[in-house]
């Protein structure tokens, strides 16, 4: 898809910057410029498209839709809505309170909270740019499965008492759902592109910069030996390393791409990314305001286990879905 861009950047690096592509520096500079342009193009397109769809699902409407679904159907719908509904760690508390106040089961609520940060239009765009549509779609499906399974297990454990008492006593009330015409939806999508890019560009540049350094300088044989798909402990290490970090999928995908280019297993790289987005320490701190430590621990264990299983799945089928 981007062969034309690869060729142009090679010409730029070799002819304009006078850096040989056979050197580590040339390889790193090419990676940084190529990935930056490629990701920005796909990022803008995907954010615009999904934001247009998202305009039909404001938080209040999402809450009312979920009220209508029970059982496993509710978990599936929550995970699917998590893909197109705005979510970040700062919004986890008000969303959680709003869902509980609406009477939505705690398991359904957690299906949403697990899937939403893992799978979003920006992450899909960068995955598409870095790894191709097979990996991108498989990643989305895996994120939904982790969210649905995690929510079902939490529901079966009957942990409603692990929610702080004041949450059940809050009355947020019904918010107004403002409908948009087509022109407003297009404006919403365009504004969302500007807002998201402005908010995440620093994560993106840092991630691409680290990825470029890994691409040019990291020792491939060493990484392949200790983090390759044949190492049974590599996925565990990836998840454990990802949990304490504060970032999002956008900053970690370029790193995952560079690691894979050096021989790291696709499952190891993507499980690291999922752990950063779904189990980040700042999100756990915010969730502590509304749920007790036992439920937080259960959430981390269930979600972490699901991510590890997904990592092994990707490592096992990586040769089938890789570009």
Automatic annotation (TrEMBL):
UniProt KW Membrane keyword: yes
Cellular component, GO, one term: plasma membrane
Presence of keyword Zinc: no
InterPro entries associated with the record: DUF318, UPF0718_permease
Membrane topology, from the record: Multi-pass membrane protein
A Pfam family matched in the record: ArsP_1
Membrane-spanning parts: 31-53, 74-100, 106-129, 136-154, 200-220, 232-253, 265-287, 299-322
Subcellular location as annotated: Cell membrane
Keywords from the UniProt entry: Cell membrane, Membrane, Transmembrane, Transmembrane helix
Family: Belongs to the UPF0718 family.
Protein name per the record: Transporter
Source organism: Peptoclostridium litorale DSM 5388
Lineage summary: Bacteria, Bacillati, Bacillota, Clostridia, Peptostreptococcales
């Amino acid at each position: 898809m981007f062969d034309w861009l690869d060729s142009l950047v090679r010409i730029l690096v070799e002819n304009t910057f006078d850096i040989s592509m056979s050197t580590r520096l040339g390889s790193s500079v090419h990676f940084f410029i190529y990935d930056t342009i490629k990701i920005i193009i796909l990022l803008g397109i995907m954010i615009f498209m999904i934001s247009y769809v998202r305009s039909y699902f404001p938080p209040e409407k999402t809450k009312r839709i979920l009220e209508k679904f029970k059982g496993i159907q509710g978990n599936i719908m929550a995970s699917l809505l998590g893909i197109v509904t705005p979510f970040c760690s700062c919004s986890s508390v008000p969303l959680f309170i709003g869902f509980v106040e609406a009477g939505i089961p705690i398991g359904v609520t957690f299906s949403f909270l697990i899937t939403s940060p893992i799978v979003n239009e920006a992450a899909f765009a960068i995955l598409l740019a870095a790894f191709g549509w097979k990996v991108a779609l498989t990643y989305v499906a895996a994120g939904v499965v982790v969210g649905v399974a995690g929510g079902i297990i939490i529901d079966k454990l009957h942990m409603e008492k692990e929610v702080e008492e004041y949450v059940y006593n809050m009355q947020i009330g019904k918010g107004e759902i403002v409908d948009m015409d087509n022109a407003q939806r297009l404006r919403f999508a365009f504004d969302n592109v500007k807002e998201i890019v402005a908010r995440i560009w620093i994560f993106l540049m840092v991630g691409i910069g680290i990825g470029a350094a890994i691409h040019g300088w990291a020792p491939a044989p060493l990484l392949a030996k200790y983090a390759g798909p044949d190492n049974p402990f590599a996925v565990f290490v990836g998840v454990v390393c990802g949990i304490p970090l504060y970032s999002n999928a956008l900053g970690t995908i370029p790193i995952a791409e560079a690691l894979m280019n050096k021989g790291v297993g696709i499952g190891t790289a993507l499980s690291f990314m999922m752990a950063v987005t779904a189990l980040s320490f700042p999100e756990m701190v915010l969730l502590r305001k509304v749920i007790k430590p036992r439920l937080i621990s259960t959430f981390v264990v269930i979600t972490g286990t699901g991510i590890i299983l997904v990592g092994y799945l990707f490592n096992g089928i990586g040769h089938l879905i890789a570009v």
